[in-house]
Structures are given as C-alpha cells and as structure tokens.
Write a structure and sequence with these properties.
The structure is a single chain. By secondary structure, the protein is of the alpha+beta class. It folds into two domains: 45 residues, no CATH class; 32 residues, no CATH class. Helix content is 38%, strand content 10%. It has a two-stranded parallel sheet with strand order 1-2. The protein starts with 8 loop residues before the first strand and ends in a 13-residue tail after the last helix. This is Copia protein. It comes from Centaurea solstitialis.
Length: 98
Amino acid sequence: MGAPQLSPTPLWCDNNSTIQIAHNDVFHERTKHIEIDCHFTRQHVVRNTIQLHPISTLDQPADIFTKAHLPGRFRELRDRDIDDFIPIDRDKLCDLSI
C-alpha cells in the first residue's frame, strides 16, 4: 500500500496451539497437514512483521464473519465497538502522516 510498517501488525488468535506452532520451528507428525500455512505465518513472526496475541474465543470479533450464531450472540457481536474487543491504542499502530 506504500506506507512503511513501523511496528508489527497485531493478530489476535483464539487458538493457543496455533500460536505455539507458529513460534516453534519443529514440526511434529500431528502438524504435517498445516506446514504451508505455518511456514507463511512463521516467516512473518520471525521477520517481526506480525505479532500473534491470544484472545478469548468469546472476544474474537472475526467470529461474526466465520460462524453461524444464535440471534442473541449475533446481536452482541454486531453491537460491540471494535475497541471493546482489542485493547490497543490505534495511534501507535502506524503513522500515516508520511
């Protein structure tokens, strides 16, 4: 997009095993089926272009786009402000005043 990346892009993941696999360069027999995805993610973790952070499944905002929900849960996700999910100062993410 033309903007320099001043800090790693934060990614919130509700699967601790995924975070561990992305940080561990040893593959096990049980993880062979996800090697390509892990290599891609691991490259970015090692290059410090992304930072993986754990998040509770109940707080995962992406779920509204990837799963079917009962009406009450859907409304809860829909009505929450993104700042309720992610405790971060958006001004620190990047400086686009270039």
